[in-house]
């Protein structure tokens, strides 16, 4: 495999934060490329079709490009359109549907091998998010085709018995939308209430639907087994078996820790598995290798989002430029 090109910065991940890093590199006159294993802003594309962001549109802006939406809180479709426009405006150098397979540190630079070719770069920015690897329940039957860790559209579940695991935004949205399309919805919730982070304009809706019995909910409970036509729930009253057609396990997601470890990024030994990095420069324990966006938070995937990490690119590129000037 021959090396295709050399860059000052190679960015892994074509989400909003990866795009913002590329814009900063372009502004600084540095050569760069974005490598993305899926489509543009792949994680946002995989969000539920009818999702509305918690953030207002101006907090999702990058590159100084205004984000105009029909309502204060934009939809998934509006966000996809916005980030396409931003990419076109800056004519960003990006390769989509190209999986990064390995990163190797060589003398003074990195070699990045992908499924298509290889590159060398002085600096690497990893902005891969966390949406690709679901947190598994590790229970019998989780691998059945009827089980999905991603939710897209409610129509598919019309007239079906649907069990939803979880009590945060993704779970609540799936429960309300499938219920309103005619599904028989049951929720299994590990704690004693709906999650505190649920969008404030949605929370009363799900609470009322549960209280009136339109949506059944088992609190302080866990799903313990899945079979083709039924599921087992461990509740305070003991094991309950109910009929079931589909399971939506909205159990959250996590960064690809094995990829980070393979590269040589140090991770904390506790549950959070925080990647080692300087919060001012975003540089990891590996010189010239940086983190940006959600991946910085390890298992604490609620710490970083677009609105509070869109300045990571400025920090990183500023540090790179300063390092170049000091050589």
Q: What report would you give on this structure?
A:
Strands 1, 2, 3, 4, 5, 6 and 17 form a 7-stranded mixed beta sheet that branches. A 5-stranded parallel beta sheet has the order 8-15-9-10-11, with helices on one face. The longest helix is centred in the N-terminal third of the chain and has 15 residues, at 76-90. A hairpin with a 2-residue loop joins strand 4 (100-106) and strand 5 (109-114). It contains 8 helices and 17 strands. The chain folds into 2 domains: 3-133 and 253-325, FAD/NAD(P)-binding domain (3-Layer(bba) Sandwich); 136-249, FAD/NAD(P)-binding domain, CATH 3.50.50. Helix 1 packs parallel to helix 3 (76-90). It is α/β, with parallel strands linked by helices.
Keywords:
327 residues, alpha/beta, FAD/NAD(P)-binding domain, 7-stranded mixed β-sheet, 8 helices, Bdr, oxidoreductase activity, flavoprotein, oxidoreductase, Thioredoxin reductase (NADPH)
Structural class: alpha/beta
- The CATH architecture name of the largest domain reads 3-Layer(bba) Sandwich
CATH class of the largest domain: Alpha Beta
Q: Helicity range of the residues? A: 10-25%
Major sheet details: 7 strands, mixed
Along the chain, the helix and strand elements come as EHEHHEEEEEEEHEHEEEEEEHEHH
Q: Please name the CATH topology of the largest domain.
A: FAD/NAD(P)-binding domain
Within CATH, the superfamily of the largest domain carries the name FAD/NAD(P)-binding domain
First-residue to last-residue Cα separation:
32 Å
User: What does the overall shape look like?
Assistant: globular
| Secondary structure tally: strands | 17
- The number of helical runs is 8
Count of spatially separate domains: 2
